[in-house]
Here is the input.
Amino acid sequence: VQLQESGGGLVQPGGSLRLSCATSGFDFGLYNMDWDRQAPGKGLESISWISRAGGAVSYADSVKGRFTISRDNAKNTLYLQLNDLKIEDSGVYYCRLGTTRGQGTQVTVSS
Here is the structure.
């Protein structure tokens, strides 16, 4: 199993980013997937989940209405659209299959 996140960066409050997670080594379309994040000095927070076909999603209250999870099973890729970013959204974002995470991508929200 390989999970490779990308798309992070530095953005001003109110800005947007689109994170991607390229996957390999397993049949992507058969598995539900998650996004987690870890803010500086804090523990891991599970922020979003998507079913294997993409028909069901869920979000943590902290990101609901601002973030959108999606997937392209033909491309074996998971996405997370981050809108209306806040300073407290800063951290390392990870995609996750079960208990396996990628190396993460850094999101920094700062003016």
Notes: The mean pLDDT is 97.
